[in-house]
Amino acid sequence: MALCLSMASGDLRSVNLNLLPILHALLGAGSVTEAARRLHLSQSSVSGSLRALRDHFGDELLVRNGRESVLTPRATELLEPLDRLMASMGELLFSDSFAPEAADTQLIIASADYVEVLLAPGFADLLPRNQGSARVQFTHATLSDLPALGRGGVDLVIGPRRLLDRALEMVRVPVEELRRKRLWRDGHVVVRRRDADVSDESLEDYLAAPHASFRLDRVFAGNSEQLALEQHALAQNDRLLLPSLHTLLWVAAHSGYRAVVPESLARFYEGAFPLAVETPPFAIPDLDIEMLWHRRQDASARHRWLRECMVEVVGAAPFVPS
User: Fold this and answer.
1) What is the rounded CA–CA span in Å between residue 12 and residue 10?
2) Residues 293, 156: contact at Cβ < 8 Å?
3) Domain ranges within the chain, ordered by starting residue
């Protein structure tokens, strides 16, 4: 602790901190010649630094003992705290590593539940391979998750680009503060009970039939189907509004309701639910699914690991379009 106390008792601004790595090399090498070699400096430069260090500590630090140099008792006292200080400085200034096998951390992904259904199995396979305590938590996205990206409350938000852009305008989060990466493109399909008789159904009949539709919350629909209906100047008979695409599938499979869902989700459950999957009777733009994060996380090794995992999981997910 002597070195730390020496600096703490005075004004750090009066100390040439560039001398610290030279002191560390001198005490570790035990000679000016070897310290100069390790530092790739001239012997005269290291000798000048040793003089400055002797003045600062009021001690010779290195003294001749026959043909060798030996550390003074004061220099020996400095060895352990100096090792700790240099390690801490290196970690502070240069280390940004993340080892998932050793990390005890939780990473939060906000998305619609259909993203969770498609990707959670991939994370379940990936995380045990790291043999650590890193945890990934999926949460159902809300508008408040977008400003939470900047505060660190959420690590990633995943959703369709068009809807994310509209949500960002609503919560007034500047787009330039964020980073985004496209993950996949998804189409839309209509799902209904498999045994429902819809032969010769016209567009008018379709719109008049009862529908279950996705609605994120009371403020923001978050629904590409509704945007397309507005663009086509159409109105449909929405009787049930749900914040879960998974529940929409269940309702459509077990009632006379129609629902529009991402095609990948419908294909995922097509064999498990008694569903008929059809093309919508009006054009709905495809979903460009992307992940969104705050630029403050760009260089974070922890966050970079999460983004790399996301790309790997998406690439291997069987029902995600390539």
Assistant:
1) 6
2) yes
3) 2-94, 106-185+288-316, 188-285
Rounded to 5°, the CA angle 167-306-180 comes to: 35
State residue 94's pLDDT score.
Answer: 66
Give the phi and the psi of residue 192 in degrees, each rounded to 5: -155, 170
Residues 6+ apart with CB under 8 A from 130: 100, 101
Residue of 117, 67, 66, 94 lying closest to 273 (CA atoms): 117
Please, what sign has the CA dihedral across residues 264, 270, 273, 278?
A: positive
The domain made up of 106-185+288-316 has a fold known as D-Maltodextrin-Binding Protein; domain 2 (3.40.190)
Residues 46-73: b if buried by 16+ CB within 10 A, e if exposed? beebbeebeebbebebbeeeeeebebee
Distance CA 76, CA 30 (A): 11
- Predicted confidence at residue 8, as pLDDT, reads 46
**What value does the mean pLDDT take over residues 261-279?**
92
CA dist list (Å): 140 to 45, 94, 113, 143 = 61, 36, 6, 10
Q: For the chain, first and last CA: distance in Å?
A: 58
pLDDT tens digit sequence for 72-119: 999 899 988 888 888 788 767 766 666 766 667 889 999 999 999 999
Q: What is the pLDDT of residue 161?
A: 95
Fold for domain 2-94?
A: Arc Repressor Mutant, subunit A (1.10.10)
pLDDT of amino acid 95: 61
Say what the pLDDT of residue 1 is.
32
The stretch 282-293 carries a mean pLDDT of 96
Strands 188-193 and 275-278: antiparallel
What is the predicted pLDDT for the residue at 101? 63
As given in the structure block, the two tokens for residue 322 are 């390539």
